[in-house]
Amino acid sequence: MRVPVIVAVVLLLLLTTHAVAGDPTVVVTGYTVTPEVLMPGGQGTIQVNLTNTARQATMTETDTYTGGASGTRTETKSTAINAYVESVYLKGDGLTVISGDYGDVGEVGPGQSVTLTFLVQAPEEEGLYFPEVWIRVRGAQGVKYPVPVNVNSRYALIAQPAISVVRTAPDRVVPGETFSLSLLLENTGLSRANDLSVQVSPSNTTSIVSLSPEHYYVKQLEPGDAVRFNLSFATDRKTPTGLQVVPVSLTYVTPDSVKVARTESVGVQVTGQAEMGIASLSTDPVRPSAGSPFTLVFRIENTGTDDATSVRATVDLPFEGTKEAFVGTIEPDNDAPAVFNLRAGEAGDRPYALTVEWRDDRGAHTMTEDLSISVEAPDRTALIVGVVVLIAAVVVAVWWLRRRKEGG
Question: Are residues 44 and 38 in contact, defined by beta-carbon separation less than 8 angstroms?
Fold first, then answer.
C-alpha cells in the first residue's frame, strides 16, 4: 500500500486547514476528483476551485476642479483588491500530471472564483495519494492544498460534509436605499455537518448596516439538505460607489469532531443615481413685456447620489432667442444655472415645457417640467405722454406764430 490508513487519516485532517496568506489572498474552496476511484495506470481529472477572499479597500483623493468657481474637493473612493495569481500547478506525489500546469492565471476580484482542471495518470501501485495544488499569488504567501486521490484502495476516505454557498444579490444598489441578500447553504458532502454557524459581518463596511440578525445557527445539516437565509441591509447616501463586500463567516463540525472554518463574501455593486429638479425660476424683468427682450433663469439642482454629467436644458417657448443651455456637471446636493435670453412674443399666458437631459452611472436620463409664463401688453404710457407733449408744443407754436403776425 502507498500510505497506511492511519497516516491517511492524519493527512486528511490537513484538508481542513488553509495556508495563511497575506492580503490579498486566494484559497482553495473546493475540489472534485473524476472518477472518484482511479484504476492503477488509469487517467482522471482533478478540478479545483480558487476564491479570492480579499475585501474592499478605500482611498482618499483630493481633486482640483473648475466650475462656476475654482476650489478643491475631497473624495473617498472604493477600490477593489484584486489578487494576481502568478501560477497554479499540481505536485503529483506519485501521480503523473499530464496537463494543467497554469502560469500567469491573472487577476481574481474580491469574492470571485476561478476553476482549474488537471489531467492526471494514476500510478500502478494501489493506495491513497495526496497530490498538492501549489498557488503563487503576487504580494502574498503561497498556498499549498492537498487533494486526496484513491487509486483502487480498499481504504475508503472518511466521509466528510461539504458546505456550498450560493449567493443571490441585486445587480445594483443605490446609496441610501435598502437591499436584500440571500444565502443558500447546501451540504453536498457525504456526511452530516454539525453545529453549523453563520456570521454576517457588515460592520467593516461603515455605510452598510444589517437590518436582520447577523448570526444564524443550524444544529445539523444532513447530506443533500439545504438551508436558506434571507438578509436585509440599509445603506446611507454616503456609501461609496463600486463593489462593496459583505463578509460571511462559516463554521461547522465534521463527524470526526474537526471544526472547519472558512470565510465567504458577497459582493454588492453600489452605483449612484443623479436626480434633477428645479431649485428656482426667475425672469428679468420680472414681468416680460410683449416684444421686449428678457432673461429666463433656472437653477437646476441634483438631489441624487451621483454626479449628473452632460446636463443640458431646453425650453420650447415660441419666442426668439436662445432656447438651449448647456450646464455641464452638477454634483450631488449642488445646483447650477441654465440661462435663456429671449424676446417675448404676443401678450398673454404662454405654456411651455422645460426639458433637462443628463447622464450618470446608470446611463442617460430626461426630465420634463410643464410651466407657464405671463407676457404683459407693452406699456404705452410714455408714448401717450410724448404725443400729448408734442401736440401741446405744436399748439403753442401755432399760437405764437399767430401772435407775431397780428402784432406785425
Answer: yes
From the list 9, 86, 19, 22, the residue with the least C-alpha distance to 54 is: 22
Q: Could you tell me which residues are beta bridge partners of residue 49? A: 30, 115
Q: What one-character-per-residue DSSP string does 278-334 give?
A: EEEEEEESSS-BTT-EEEEEEEEEE-SSS-EEEEEEEE--SSEE--EEEEEEE-TTE
Summarised one tens digit per residue, pLDDT across range 158-194 is 677 888 888 888 888 888 889 999 999 999 888 899 9
Distances (CA, A) of 137 to 21, 81, 140, 200, 297: 9, 13, 5, 27, 58
What 3-state DSSP class applies to 397? helix
Give one DSSP letter per residue of 331-349, joined into a string. Answer: -TTEEEEEEEEEE--SSEE
Q: Categorize the per-residue pLDDT at 359 as very low, low, confident or very high, splitting at 50, 70 and 90.
A: very high
* Helical (H) or strand (E) element with 407: helix 381-407
C-alpha cell at 124: 500502478
For the record, the C-alpha cell of 101 comes out as 500546469
The residues, ordered by sequence, that sit 6+ positions from 255 with a Cβ below 8 Å of its Cβ are: 158, 159, 160, 161, 191, 192, 194
Pairwise CA distance, residues 394 & 131, whole Å: 120
DSSP state of 175: T
Which three-class secondary structure state does DSSP give residue 147? coil
Q: What is the 3-state secondary structure (H, E, C) of 47-93?
A: EEEEEECCCEEEEEEEEEEECCCEEEEEEEEEEECCEEEEEEEEECC
Cα angle at 102 between 98 and 106, to 5 degrees? Answer: 165
SS (H, E, C) 232-260: EEEECCCCCCEEEEEEEEEEEECCCCCEE
What per-residue confidence (pLDDT) applies to 20?
39
Contact (Cβ atoms closer than 8 angstroms) between residue 40 and residue 121: no
